[in-house]
Fold:
Amino acid sequence: MKPRMVFLRGGGLGDFILTLPLLKLAHLEQFPVTLYARPSYLELLGSEWDWLDVEDLDELSGNPPPYIRGCIAVSFWTDPGWYQELIHAGAIAVHQINPRPLSGKHFVIQSSANMEWVISEDFFKKPLLGNCWAGGENTLWIHPGSGGGSKNLPIGHFIDYAHQWLDRDRCKNVIFSFGEADKDRLSKIKSSAISKDPRTSIIQPPTILGLCDQLTKRADKFVGNDSGPGHLAASLGIPVEIGFTNTSESVWRPIGPRVKTYFWDSDSSKIL
Structure:
């Protein structure tokens, strides 16, 4: 029997979702697999992930897992001291994966190559969390924020996009969603004319699971920046259109069957 692979995954929502193909690859390679991650992200995994053992990353408090002896550790922290801690705790091998490659092939391809695995193109066309898109065409979901302000496209771009969407048909409607780090963007949307249209909704889902539930029930198309909610929407099979600014489109493209991406510059123009 092969040794257990223990994945230690910090980072944001998008980082978590882009780790899922690596877990599936390990499973296909007949490794027992354990994932340490944030509990709010682990809640997204349905019954199709029953083969995966999950643990709360926060409970480690920066220490190696208590049952790492005899296991293969896969860590997204590249500190040499951390490598030595894992080996000292009994890991038989440690794969340290660069969590923030700036260029090159897709993050999943680079990460799988670290373990000498070859990933099929089919992985990039499958909804990682299930095909939840109902096939509708009326509700546009816009998430104009991200975990970092430098990744955000101009707020005016999203306002214009919303106006164009609503102008197409009286049955159309728009949902703007915001996270904790998006207060400035939320304020700008609330003060714009688009917020006064009765077909516009503004929401702030309090939990990741709540965001997932609302996307599944309401989103016919998702538009946004390089962000966790964009990766989540793509993983649910929802058509997404993601704009990139200072991060690599080739490295961080969301995974899913209905994904469009583009690189934003001042001359960009979008046609619905």
About this structure: The chain has two domains: 5-125, 139-263. The domain at 5-125 is CATH 3.40.50.2000 (Rossmann fold). The chain has nine helices and eleven strands.
